Structure formats: structure tokens, C-alpha cells
């Protein structure tokens, strides 16, 4: 028979577990990017020349749920800044895309479709149009790219959440943690290391700052990549 003292301990432990579970549930991406916030951030989704109307809130949330660390790593400020960075980059990529590709981060090249397909359990190499016809798949490929390091490049996720530390080589190349490095990872060969700042890179920063302001979080350091040497191969 359970003693009264033991019963109290059991119920107290259960209460703590329930509370922890509730707190964990509140850490989902949806607790920061609510439906109203999503539509405020992407208020021009349906405009001419913008692919945004294809990317729905429900598709984003479903895709994000498959990547437990995405938008859930670190403190509240870190989480908000990562999500602002993700939407800053994807907003630029889907507004008059600057090169050929599919999805919110404009997936290109056979090897990326092969890698993404393997990671997601989909034949994206054989059927790449899945990325342009299924919004959940589209968001999954973007979040997969965001979360996955591709040597020598770290993942955008690690950069924005403090999970990456620059090497001596990175420091010499000006590659430091911050939003600017995510631009370098995504399209550094075209937009970084100019010393002036390209229109594309400036556009990315503009989106990022807008979303940080909406989420009421600071921008952090190193927003631009104009003084960063691109990684080999761009």
C-alpha cells in the first residue's frame, strides 16, 4: 500500500513532469510565429512577382514540427532572432528570385536535391517539382538546408543559435557569427566580400531587420557580409 508521504512525492513528481511538458509545448515555433504574426510578416505574399501565396502558415508549422531544434533552441531572444533570420532569407529568395531554384531557399543543383531527398525520405532528384507543388515539402527543404551544415560551411541554424565558433581561418576571412554569415552560406559567392554590399545582400538585411522589429528582438552583431570572404564555391 502506498504511504501518504510516498503518495505526496509521486503526485508532486507527476505535477512537475506535467508542468515541464507544458513548458516544453510552449516552446514550439508556433508560440512565436503565430498565424496572425505569419500574415503580418508576409503581408505581401499574394503580390505579383512574389511566390509567397504558395507558402501557407499551416504548411510552415507542419514542416517545422519535423525539425525539433528549429526555432526552439536557446532562450527567447535567440529563438526569435533565428526565426527572423530564416524569414529574412526566405523572403528575399521568394521575391523575384535572383536565380533558378525551387522552394523558400531556392534549392538548386542535383546534389542538393539528392541530399535533401535522402534526408526527407523523398525522391526529389527524380521528382524535383514536389518542391514547387507541395508547400509542406517546400518548407521542409528550406528548413533542412537551414539546419544542415555542408562543409566547410556551418549550418545557418548553428550560426544563429550560438552552436558554431569561427576557426582562425574563418576569423581571418571576416566570417563571424551573425545574420551576415547566413547570407554567406546561402549565396556568398554572389553577394559577399565586395566591401560595398550588393543590392541582394542589403535586401536580405532589410527583411531581417523588419522581422526582428516585429518580433521585438535585437539584431545582434555582423548583419552584413560585405567584408566576409565567401566560402569556396560560393
TrEMBL record:
Protein name: chitinase
Residues in the signal sequence: 1-25
Biological process terms in GO annotation: polysaccharide catabolic process
PROSITE patterns assigned to the protein according to its UniProt record, in alphabetical order: CHITINASE_19_2
Domain Glycoside hydrolase family 19 catalytic: 137-147
Any one Gene Ontology molecular-function term assigned to this protein's record: endochitinase activity
Pfam families per the UniProt record, alphabetical: Glyco_hydro_19
Cystine pairs: 192-225
Gene3D superfamilies in UniProt: 1.10.530.10
PANTHER family: CHITINASE 11, CHITINASE-RELATED
InterPro entries assigned to the protein according to its UniProt record, in alphabetical order: Glyco_hydro_19, Glyco_hydro_19_cat, Lysozyme-like_dom_sf
